[in-house]
Amino acid sequence: MLKDKLKGAGITAAAIAALALGGTAIAGAAGGGDDDDGTDTPITGPPLDRAKAAALDHTGGGRVTGTEVGDEEGAYEVEVTRADGSQVDVHLDTGFAVIGQGDDRGGDEGETERGSEH
User: Fold this and answer.
1) Domain spanning 45-113 has what CATH number?
2) Confidence (pTM)
3) pLDDT tens, 3-12?
4) CA angle 106-112-113, nearest 5°?
5) What stretches of 31-79 show up as alpha helix (H) in DSSP?
6) How many Å apart are CA 7 and CA 12, to the nearest integer?
7) For a disulfide at 40, which of 18, 68, 77, 78, Cβ 3.0-4.6 Å?
């Protein structure tokens, strides 16, 4: 009888552990690889002014709605919201030169790199 209770408790513990691991995996997958976990470091000080100017010049205007230091595509990322409401992420190198851009449609289809038509 005690052996059956211990066996049942072991099975229950294993099932709970499997559910916890599965939930963590699902939560990670639902994030879609997006880096919006609140740990992004915004650009500050004089680099912010230079990054904003470069991004707005590249996009032909708009409003800067977010910045990030050291994103995966470059030294700086500047999110610009255009007058039509569309958003574009402008990626800059350490010298504030545009090295690429990506739209915020949720995929890479808007991604361009240096040397491509913008």
Assistant:
1) 3.30.505.20
2) 0.59
3) 666 566 556 6
4) 135
5) 45-59
6) 9
7) 68
